[in-house]
Amino acid sequence: MLLPLLRKEIKELLMERSILVGAIIIPLIVFPIIGALTGLGMSAAMERAEVGLVIGIADLDKTWLTSTHLLELFREKGIRTIEVKCSSEDECARAAAGKELNAVIMIPSGFTRNFTFGIQSTIMTIYPIRSAAISEISRNQMISTLLLDIFKSLAERVHGGGIDPRFFEKPILENSMVLYLGRILRAPASAVAATFLTTLFGLPLVAVMVASYASTVSATSIALEKESKTLELLLTIPARRITILLSKLLGTFVIVLLSTISFLVGFGIYGMMIAGSMMARIPVEEVAAGQQVSLTLIDLWPSPIFLPILVSAIFIAMVMMTCIGLLVGVLGSDVRSAQQLVGAITFPLLMPPFFILVFAPLESLPIGVRIGLLLDPFTHLFLAIQSGFAGNLTSAITSIMVMLGFAALLLLLSSWLFMGERLITARITLGRRRTSGA
Known about the structure:
Layout: H1 2-14, H2 17-51, E1 54-59, H3 64-76, E2 80-83, H4 89-98, E3 103-107, H5 111-116, E4 121-129, H6 134-159, H7 165-169, E5 172-180, E6 183-185, H8 189-227, H9 231-236, H10 241-276, H11 278-281, H12 297-300, H13 306-331, H14 335-359, H15 367-374, H16 379-390, H17 393-419, H18 422-425
Parallel strand pairs: 1-2, 1-3, 4-5
Antiparallel strand pairs: 3-4, 5-6
Helix pairs in contact: 2-14, 3-6, 6-8, 8-10, 8-13, 8-14, 8-16, 10-13, 13-14, 13-16, 13-17, 16-17
């Protein structure tokens, strides 16, 4: 008895166009496209990073090993080196911030003596973070791995077949620091990268959830009126159509604003927990002897403009999604069709820029893909968040102004739809397909 009922249930569900399109067809089309574009962008970004790596070398040892053999190994790896004149941590940090360097390495005095005797030596590395793309953060880990490979090759060249396997496995220790917004974060690059990656993925995810919720609430609001046949009655009261529209918008804003506050508070607690557990997640073997590992929530907090940019971007996205939800609610025949239709519309608008821009910077994508993404208003939501995170005020404000323009256009479209009989007569349905015997 179970199998016939199961077949009946599956058949009825698949006859619903909204389920077939929204749950099966759209993901099969959209996610492969997103994957291809993201992979293309990441490949382009990483290839550019690998080809164009520029490392600053502050050589305090100045021996045949560091000034000749080490530099040869860098050239063999395709890495361009620039001599940096600094003798202290602060001077090297200023050099890393002031030049287009991917990293600065300070080789201490006495390095060659220790290295030739097979004694593990410590070098200081500084990794500047200049953008909020995952490819930028991951590049620091790639450089750290390349450095270990280079010094392994140097150990093999110096010691030949008589090398101590333990020394060859890790001939150097990194006293590594990350330079972010003028602040020095004293921790291995891999540990800082893990926290940044979590934040860069989590913040856009919060924006996606808030925006999606706004569209669903607004679509449900107007669709409930149509389904219960109270919309016609509502239009007979002595109130202008624009007043009714504003009441719908503001009502949705209140509900979604409470949701936004809840999301932001929850994410703030989440961020504090991540920062608090950072020390516990740093592997002991990645910390150089004597290195002071110091990470606080203040160190990890983005630029001062970040919070107002984040709140503004999410609020404007909420306005845009509320308008889209109202438009869909007007076009839907009932609550279920409106909710299904709003999902089918918002999914392609939100998901491609979210997944692509989290992993690959916009400038690394082909020009056609860039233009297509920039025409999507929600691309600018994620660009604003990334620019605010990196402290780029001009780019963040530009993205917010573009979002405001799209929001104004959607508001005008919503008011136009509310003015005439379209509010009552408009219908778009993704309902059940009719069979030939119906």
